[in-house]
Amino acid sequence: MAVDYGLQGQVAVITGSTSGIGQALATALAEQGVNVVLNGFGDPAKIEADRRALQERTNAAVRYHGADMSKPQEINDLIDYAVSEFGRLDILVNNAGIQHVAPVEEFPPEKWDALIAIILSSTFHASRAAIPIMKAQGRGRIVNIASAHGLVASPFKAPYVAAKHGVVGFTRALGVELARTGITANAICPGYVKTPLIEAQIVDQAKTRGIPEDRVMEDVILAAQPTKKFVEYEHLAGMLLYLVSDLGASATGSAMVVDGGWTAT
């Protein structure tokens, strides 16, 4: 039975939403009647086809803005676009991210700069642009997609871990700062989710290690998750819908962990 979270007619911007987690979260919001602005890179024809299909299936208004999340002015343009299209902004989901894996001494400095810009700095710039709009409305929801790596570390991912820890810290500070404004700010910290990127890694790891793909999933990818199961998109969507609805009004400055027990060990 579908749950009505009372979000009909609200407006959301979801960064990095042309695939993976962001796309799943945008879909969940549109299914609740939220008008959404998608953002991200990819094949333009596929992005348009996906946008149109989501709009037709849900009857929510779905738009797209191709802001480069490493560029502050384009981020400002993204927020301005949402307001110009819909007249308001109720929900901001900061999800954009990239990954690069290497030891610190071999990590290209330009990759460090890119990870920090797209994961951490974009969260600041988008929030900075959205907050005055939400304050004027007397209500708003900011949800930052962090990671279990925002709470614990893994080797060879130092910039990603640093950026995600920064997202969690920024979220906590924002929650305290905005506590009396009607705006909440929370982070969701997923464990491993079976995104297209992870699926490709499973195939590559199986070939490299000479073991079956199910062994790669359990012994390599999911080694840190006690459940030995991937976090599902709908589990993250459920957390998002709680946080952006009135049910989540008292949750702010929090890092909500959805990681199959990873950070409990």
UniProtKB/TrEMBL annotation:
- Write down the superkingdom of origin: Bacteria
Q: Does the keyword Oxidoreductase apply?
A: yes
Matching entries from Gene3D superfamilies are given as: NAD(P)-binding Rossmann-like Domain (3.40.50.720)
Task: Name the keywords, alphabetized.
Answer: Oxidoreductase
Cited InterPro entries: 3-OHbutyrate_DH, NAD(P)-bd_dom_sf, Sc_DH/Rdtase_CS, SDR, SDR_fam
Keyword check for Oxidoreductase, yes or no.
Answer: yes
Record SUPFAM superfamilies:
NAD(P)-binding Rossmann-fold domains
Question: Any idea of its EC number?
Answer: 1.1.1.30
**Annotated Gene Ontology MF terms?**
3-hydroxybutyrate dehydrogenase activity
Where do the coiled-coil regions begin and end? none
Q: Which Pfam families match?
A: adh_short_C2 (PF13561)
Q: Give the family, as the similarity comment puts it.
A: Belongs to the short-chain dehydrogenases/reductases (SDR) family.
Instruction: Indicate what this protein is called per its UniProt record.
Output: 3-hydroxybutyrate dehydrogenase
UniProt source species: Phenylobacterium koreense
